[in-house]
Write a structure and sequence with these properties.
It is built from five helices and eight strands, in the order ααββαβββαβαββ. It is an alpha+beta fold. The protein is elongated. Keywords: Signal.
Length: about 160
């Protein structure tokens, strides 16, 4: 879905480039619906701060750096990559840093590789920890004997 919207933004920018200013603005706005994306500011090449990469692209600006304007002057201060616009669905994954992310895209944006699908911890140890737990929790996760346990797999009968 987001790929289509970003493509529409780029396509809209190409189509309206030769048209009058008033038409261009209205037409681009109608093609660019970035939705209620998470605030991940970028600094556009016009020196303005945009709330996301999508907002910058829809304003026909190229992101120069992550964060609010102005961009850092030192090349060592520049981020190594611009973060992707992530989808809004939740398909939890466990990162190799032991943290749970809403989806794979958010893990990647944090520079973390996915270790397994679902909440942390991964693997057989998680199931063993649940078997050792003397109760079933009512929330999706709980501390049990000092370990974080995913109770979504717990039999609540």
């Amino acid at each position: 879905m987001k790929t289509i919207i970003i493509f529409a933004c780029v396509l809209g920018a190409v189509i309206v480039q030769g048209q009058g200013q008033e038409e261009s603005s209205d037409y681009t706005e109608s093609l660019c619906d970035c939705g209620e994306s998470t605030y991940q500011p970028v600094c556009g090449d016009d020196g303005q701060t945009y709330s996301s990469v999508c907002e910058a692209k829809c304003s026909e600006q190229e992101p120069q750096c992550e964060g609010e304007c102005p961009c850092p002057e030192s090349p060592s201060d520049l981020p190594t990559r611009i973060q992707k616009v992530c989808p809004f669905y939740i398909r939890k994954v466990c990162g190799d840093n032991g943290n749970t992310f809403d989806n794979e895209c958010q893990a990647e944006n944090n520079g973390v590789s996915v270790q397994c699908e679902g909440e942390c911890p991964c693997g057989e140890n998680a199931e063993e920890e649940q078997e050792d737990c003397p109760f079933c929790c009512t929330s999706s996760s709980v501390e049990c004997q000092g370990k974080r346990v995913d109770c979504s797999r717990c039999d609540r009968t």
